[in-house]
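User: Quick sanity check before I run a bigger batch. Here is a single chain. Can you write out its predicted 3D structure?
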Amino acid sequence: MNDSVSDYLKALSQARWQSPEQFQSMSTNVLQWLTEQGSLSHRLNAECDHLSVEVVSNTKSCADRITEEEIERLAHEDCWLREVVLLGDEQPWVIGRTLMSLSAMGQGDYDISQQGDTPLGVTVFSNADTKRDALEIAQITTSEGVLFARRSRLWVAGHPILVAELFLPHSPVYKRESA
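Assistant: Done. Predicted structure follows.
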């Protein structure tokens, strides 16, 4: 899985992000998952017996390794980078990439570097004032076909966190809708 995780993360970094309105023709199920405003972790957990996190990377990332689009949504400064695989019943469902500026970590009550193997949504959505904005969607072509991804900014205690998620082939996002 490690080679494929690297491939997925590379594909996610090259996504062409667009507004959700440009995807109105997609299935209702997929669109509902991609535009979820609450905790993706909670929604995924409802689809399985056991949701787990495999941490791929949890490290400082220099500002020069962050894209211009990411800088626009955060700040031009060093960030903490957390990359994970979310697994439902041991099946890889989502690749997640999260960035938070080091200054925001130092000023706030939330330190992403200490997240460990707890899903991000479980922690950040326990804060009553968490909100999501700047939601964008992408279609990404992989060796398994076209997959969907989303990127958004979460505001936790007034500090931004940028989250990008690639929904893998076995994710419940792709479940067929009931007739």
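Residues 153 and 162 are 4 Å apart (CA to CA).

User: Great, the batch can go ahead then.
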